[in-house]
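All the exercises in this workshop are built on plain-text protein records. The record below serves as our worked example for the rest of this section.
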Amino acid sequence: MHILENLNSSVVANWERGSRGRYQFTGCNDARQAALSRALDSLYTALVGTIIPDSQASAATTSEAFRVFFGDRVGAAFVTRILTEVITGKAKRAPIRGFSSGSPTFVCVDPTQPEKNFNMTGPDGSTTDAISWCTKGPTAAYVNPLPFIILCPKFFLFHEGPISGKVDCPVVNREANRFRRKRRDGSGVAGASVYANIQWILLEEIVHYYLYAQSEVIQRDPEVYNINKAWGLSPREQLGNAPNYSYYASSKFPDRLQRDVGIFG
């Protein structure tokens, strides 16, 4: 993941600032701050009301969604801990100069405001600026080991809600015993509908923040996005694959996989 070279107090001094709970926003205009606040509120509602209680269920009542994306109950306490950290927004990184805390901080990239551009250096040493990077297609990215989650303009074009919309459910092909591709004709990417919803994109990026901040489970890098391959990872690998948390959450809220119980045997 890219390391930010010059996102510091002198650069962001005049940028828009905001927050929702412990989550911070910088460089995001009022409309984008409002969209992020709504998405975080919806995500909180889903996690508290449905997803975390499911992750805490007994072995006898383990949901099909949990078994598919985390394998067994061995990692249940870890999944619950990560999701609980998501709803609290607790800081796990040291604050960067100019920021009030090291909690997850969303940084909006806006090509219409080039004065707010900043440089990014990749693991290979190559340097690019954020606006150029976003034009290559990325939606969002967590920057390890910093508290920043970069949001490209494309992010705000995706479906905002309601989070319970049926369109966001991963759909199973019963005959093939696999997740169906995005379109019924077999084209597209299986599970892509999940990433048409900004709540689940946010969840993945926030999970990256908390996975990188712990040492119990190795964070998969690069992560596995293909939903069928994510399903096929070992339980230990699934715990370290951030997309599995979004696939699990979107399957439990609403409970699409539970209604299809029995087809994974």
